[in-house]
Structure formats: C-alpha cells, structure tokens
Design brief:
The structure is a homodimer of 180-residue chains. Chain A has 180 residues and is an alpha/beta fold. Chain A has five helices and six strands. Chain A has a six-stranded mixed sheet, covered by helices on one side. The longest helix of chain A has 19 residues. The interface between A and B is medium-sized, with 29 and 29 residues. β2 of chain A pairs antiparallel with β2 of chain B, so a sheet runs across the interface.
Chain lengths: 180, 180
Amino acid sequence: MKDMQIRFSGSGGQGLILSARILAAALAGEGRFVAQSQAYEPTSRGGLSRSDLVISDREVEYPLATRLDAVVILDQVAVAASAGLLGPETLAIVDESNVKEPPKDAGHIVSLPVTARAREIGNARVANIVALGALAELTEIIDPDTLRGKMLALVPERFRDLNAEAFDAGREMAREAETV
Amino acid sequence: MKDMQIRFSGSGGQGLILSARILAAALAGEGRFVAQSQAYEPTSRGGLSRSDLVISDREVEYPLATRLDAVVILDQVAVAASAGLLGPETLAIVDESNVKEPPKDAGHIVSLPVTARAREIGNARVANIVALGALAELTEIIDPDTLRGKMLALVPERFRDLNAEAFDAGREMAREAETV
C-alpha cells in the first residue's frame, strides 16, 4: 500500500492525540509502520492541538507530514496550522459548528456535526472518537471494524460503551454524507 | 532555559510512550513548548519502542532528536537505536537487569534496578513510572513534585497509589545512586 499522511487537529482537550494513538496502534497491529508526532504548547496558551501520522509498509523515521492525505479539523484554530500541507487529493473532515471557514486548499471537504453528535450521545469529549469513526468510513486507511476493536481495547473500560456508540455514530454520519 | 532532548526507549509494552506523554504534558503546564515523536512498528515484530521529546522555550516544530541530553533505556534492544545521538553530556539511565551492555558513547551512565523495583512494588508494568521518577531526580528538566502531580492526574484512578509508589521509588533509587 502507498504511504499515507494523516493529521488530527483541533484545540487542546479535544482528545485528538488519543485518536492518533489509537489509529497508530491499530495500524501497527495490521503490520504497518507508523511514525507519530505531536506538539504540546504551554497550557496557558490554550489553542492548537495536533497529532500527525506517517504510515508506511517500511520503517519510517521521519514523522513530519509534508502533504496530508486526510486531516480531521475540530476547531477553527487548527485550520491555519495545516496551510501548505493540503492539496487536491486531501480529504478534510471538519466539524460543522466549530469550523466556520474550512481550509480553501483541500480537494475534498466533508463537514459533519461531530461535536454536536458527541454531545447528543452524552459527552462532547468523545468527539475525537466520532471523528475517528468518520475518518475510518471515508478513507481506505484501515478496516473500520479492526480500528473499532483496537479503540475499545485502549479506552478505559467504563467508557467503552460510550466510545463504541461514538465510533458507530461517526461511521454512520460519514456514510450519510457520502450519499449526498 | 536551554533546549533539551530526551528519549524514553525499551521494548513494546513497557509503557514508555506514556512516560514521555506525562513529561510532555507536565512541561506544557510549566509554560514550555514540547514536540514529541514516536514510531510504532508492526506488532508482530515485537521489539523497539521509543518516544522522543524536544523541549524548548520557543515553538518547536521539529520533533526529531539530534543529540540526547538524557535517555532512558529499559531493554537491550533499544541501545543500538540511540547510536549517534549520544555524547559526553548525555545521561543514560539504564535498567540494571535488562541492559547488560549499556551504550558506550554516553558520558554518564546510571544503572538502576528499575524493573526489579517495579516488580517488588507489585507490577513490572510500572517500570516506566519508576524510570520517570529517576529521570526527574537525576536531571534539571522539571521539578519532580510538579511532574509527580501531573503523572497522578493522567494515570487511571485505581492505579494512582501504585504509580505514586513507583515514582517515589524511582526518585529514591536515583538519590542513592547519586551518592555512590
């Protein structure tokens, strides 16, 4: 399979580094090499959170994204951070209510009520898992059921049902978006 | 403060990425910028696990270590991975029983019974936290008590006591090693 570059981005506290870590672990379980990187800013700044994955069939030691195949954006603050990494082949999955101005240079933009749906399920904090489900459904990165299983193994047991529901909701809203 | 580069390394399942994440989050809480990177290998290969931190007072977008100030090595398999990144100023904290041949090019080597102590405390899986405590004690990266507080906030509640004990044991064995 070809190399892929994926970014999860939003604001601090949205759990996007966890989403990236779950995807990385699931891909490693499928025999792939993944380099992951993230930046932590001083907490006092609030602001941007992002985690990147570079996925390959060979060892990858360079974890910096150069051209994203897919990017999840859950907060407006994260849009500018990906400028220069997007192109005609980039799929951007953006939060419908938090991202009023999606990136202009992504070839495909899918706007989904990620956070709103998470809140409906019971907790805005599972927006990261809703987004993960949507990403799995909209791309060929990994089999969604494989990813779901790994996700359930990595989240705390008492939040397992909540996260399962979040993941399935993400897949479902992505399927509906596809058919528009 | 000057920029610092830190690596946690060992074999898969030793929880070293969590150690790095805890340190990164604690440093961000102290107003510093941290870039973190790690590589996931196909699970079937077992083998190396490592996570690097580049710590700065300014934004750091390049998360790759070039010269380590400190490296934690909990498994022999990880020694070769840091070749070329060590020098006279590098502090290497190595597991006494798992690392029979410490790196030759680290200026300072402190060999500690990290995993053995974790096992005594009740679970070899907290070796990562024992190592974190030792690292905090042996370096000026961060105030050990600040790091301890962040660690306790990030580990699951039911493992809090175990991890507190592990962290304190790491600090204690580091203090004893220093006085030799």
